[in-house]
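Hi R.,

Here's the input for the fe (ii) ion complex you asked about:
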Amino acid sequence: MTADLFDSSSDVRPSRETMAEGAVLLRAFARPIERDLIAALRDIAAQAPFRHMVTPGGHQMSVAMTNCGNAGWVTDRSGYRYDAADPESGKPWPAMPSAFRALAGQAAAQGGFEGFAPDACLINRYQAGARMSLHQDKDERDFENPIVSVSLGLPAIFLFGGLKRADKPRRYRLEHGDVVVWGGPSRLFFHGVAPLGDGEHNLLGRQRINLTFRKAH
Ligand code: SIN
Ligand code: FE2
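And here is the predicted structure with fe (ii) ion in place:
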C-alpha cells in the first residue's frame, strides 16, 4: 500500500543543473503539464503526421518529425529551411498550443532568457535505434534567442559538446519531463542524441518525443 503514496507524478522534484555557460538542465520541469502536452501532441500529429524527412545528402532520417507554429523546420534534397506550410499537405502547420508556448517561455526564463517567444516547434519522434548525429541549430535568422528542448516518454542520452564538432560531448540522460535550455555563449554548441534504447513508457509507450522550441524569424 505504501507504494501508492508515491505516485509517478509526485516522485520527481524539479531541479536545475548548469551544463555550460548559458545552458541549463531543468529536471522534471514539464511534468506538471505532461497530460496537456500529450493531448496537444496527439492533435498536432493528427493534422500533420510524423514523417521521416530526407537530408540534403539523400539520407532518410531515423527520427520522424512534424512541427507546430508559424515556422516549421523541414529538410529535403534542396536543403534545410523553415517553411510556413507542411510540404506534405500544403497547409499551414498546426498552431502552437498555448501550453507549449507558455512552457517554453517559462523554461527560457529559468535559464536566464526572459521574453522568449518561439515561432517554431519541431517535434521529433524517436523509436528504438533512432538517433540524431551531432549538429548545430543554425537555420534561424539570428542566434539571440535560446533553444528550449523538452523531452517526453522514454529516456535518451543527450550529447552536448562545444562550438567545434571535435569537442568531446558530455552525456546527459534526459528523462520524461526534463527540459534543456541553451543560449548565449552555448547557443551554437554541437549536440545530438545517442541511439534510443527500447522500453515502454507509461504515458507514451515505446517512443521518445522531443519538442524543440526556437525563434526562427
Ligand atoms: C534536436 O537537436 O533537434 C533534438 C534534440 C533532442 O531530441 O533532444
Ligand atoms: Fe538540434
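One thing worth noting: The two ends are 53 Å apart (CA to CA).

Cheers,
M.
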